[in-house]
Amino acid sequence: MIDTETPIAIIGGGIGGLVAGIALQKAGFSPHIYERASKFDEVGAGISMSPNATLGLEALGFGDYLTAHANEPLEQRLYHGETGELLQAIDRRNCRDTYHAAYYQLHRADLLNMLIDKFGLANCTMDKSLTSIESADTGARLNFEDGTTVQTAVVIAADGLRSIVRDQLFDNSPPEFSGHVAWRALVPAEKLGPLSVERWNINHLGKGRNIVSYPVRGEALVNIVALTKADQWAEESWNAKASKEELAQHYQGWADYVGQLIDALPADQLYRWGLFIRKPLDKWVNGRTALLGDAAHPMLPYMGQGASSAIEDGVILGRAFAAADTIDTALKIYADTRRERASLLQSESNLGGERLQAINPDAFRDTPIKNEDALGIFAYDPVTVALAI
Ligand SMILES: Cc1cc2nc3c(=O)[nH]c(=O)nc-3n(C[C@H](O)[C@H](O)[C@H](O)COP(=O)(O)OP(=O)(O)OC[C@H]3O[C@@H](n4cnc5c(N)ncnc54)[C@H](O)[C@@H]3O)c2cc1C
Q: What is the pLDDT confidence band of residue 127, given thresholds at 50, 70 and 90?
């Protein structure tokens, strides 16, 4: 057994870092999170949790919270962007029977609050930005922007797509612009027609773009994610406020419902993200430091698997620390169990944009979409999957 007093530092208090922390607590450890931001904050947007993630969250004790704060879409509906014709309705009522867990949609802030409440603010240091890391066989030294250092036995680097730990210890090639751009906002449901508040996940498709909407917070808000293409991402900031007029230009001539969504967008709360990718890594562990979540395997959001896979990582990390006799073995079990699965999610998610946007949407009328459950992605259970021991 690993000594449960072993100091474990987690860099980054996003979904990945918090779930890893909670899973390690469940295994008896007392990890500490170092977070760059001065307070926990999530973008005003929704998030979907597919059954593979829900299974992990339920095992960490969040079943009741999710039932109370998330909704389960009845169907994922694909519409022709221009004509508004319903092309396919993918049944999501069957997730509990097929995968033994729900497919959920919820507000990101609700998910984050749920995780922080469980992990405990007392176990987090905010305003703590890592600037460099020195890795050794016995641990690592963390150097922070405020001039302080922390010596620790284990580092879990959950510091996101632009991970400093990844740059310094694993791969210093910069993230590449994928050519995809995401626009996100929440709209009060009262500003929209009845279609929007149905418990469907609605996706309007066209060549080179699509736009997704689904309700969160009961039926009070509708989450909108629009995905478009761009040749380059020149803005200095990788996310920026955007105008709805600009967004509307991408969807001119589209179905009435899409026009309604864009009209209803709050003028000052539409954000635009250039989506960046990094290549799959062969190595996730350097000495006593391991990568997790987007730091290890960032992916485009076309399958809604980025946070879900970070949750899988966290659950497996906790199981590995509970099962192993030494820290080195625990980190090896974690990485060996996760790498292949995460690389699959990464490559399929990155192809998802081409599948949804590259062809004429008419093709979806007769051809079943190669989506997440057709690819078997939902069938993974991080709680019971065999560890690579
Ligand atoms: C448009 C869009 C829609 C998406 N929809 C979904 C979805 O429906 N379902 C889904 O599963 N996924 C979705 N995702 C993906 C998901 O948001 C990410 O994969 C997930 O949030 C990654 O979590 P993380 O904890 O690994 O990284 P992050 O959320 O990036 O967290 C990293 C944390 O580390 C902190 N940090 C960074 N650097 C430092 C440092 N040097 N020192 C200290 N702290 C640091 C940051 O402040 C941050 O809090 C979507 C993504 C996009 C862009």
A: very high
64 vs 44: which has the higher pLDDT: 64
Which residue out of 32, 33, 35 has the highest number of ligand 1 atoms within 8 Å of its CB and is therefore the one to mutate? 35
Domain ranges of the chain: 8-73+106-175+279-356+368-379
Order the strands of the 176-188 sheet from edge to edge: 86-91, 75-80, 200-206, 209-216, 221-229, 176-188, 271-277, 239-241
Q: Is 291 in the pocket of ligand 1 (CB under 6 A)?
A: no
Instruction: State how far the Cα of 68 lies from the Cα of 362, in Å rounded to an integer.
Output: 38
Q: How far is the CA of 13 from the centre of ligand 1 (A)?
A: 9
Query: Rounded CA gap, 158 and 28, in Å?
Result: 20
Order of strands across the sheet that contains 149-152: 130-136, 139-144, 149-152
For residues 93-103, one letter each, b for 16 or more C-beta atoms within 10 angstroms of the residue's C-beta and e for the rest, the string is: eebeeebebbb
CATH value of 8-73+106-175+279-356+368-379 in 3.50.50.60, 3.40.50.300, 3.30.40.10, 3.30.499.10? 3.50.50.60
Average per-residue pLDDT for the chain: 93
Pocket perturbation via mutation, ligand 1, pick of 294, 311, 317, 345 by most ligand atoms within 8 A of CB: 294
* DSSP label of 181: E
Q: What is the mean pLDDT of residues 205-225?
A: 93
Structure tokens at 150: 């922390």
Question: Whole-prediction pTM value?
Answer: 0.97
Q: Is 141 exposed, middle or buried (0-12, 13-18, 19+ CB in 10 A)?
A: middle
Taking only the tens place, the pLDDT of each residue in 251-269 is 999 999 999 999 999 888 8
Single-letter code of the amino acid located at 146: D
Would the CB of 115 count as within 6 Å of ligand 1? Answer: no
What does the block give as tokens for 315?
Answer: 């659950």
Tell me which residue of 331, 334, 290, 284 sits closest to 312, measured CA to CA. Answer: 334
Provide the sign of the torsion angle of the four alpha carbons 331, 334, 337, 343, taken in this order.
negative
pLDDT in tens, 315-366: 999 999 999 999 999 999 999 999 999 999 999 999 988 888 876 888 888 7
Ligand 1 lined by 213 (C-beta under 6 Å) = no
Length of the chain: 389
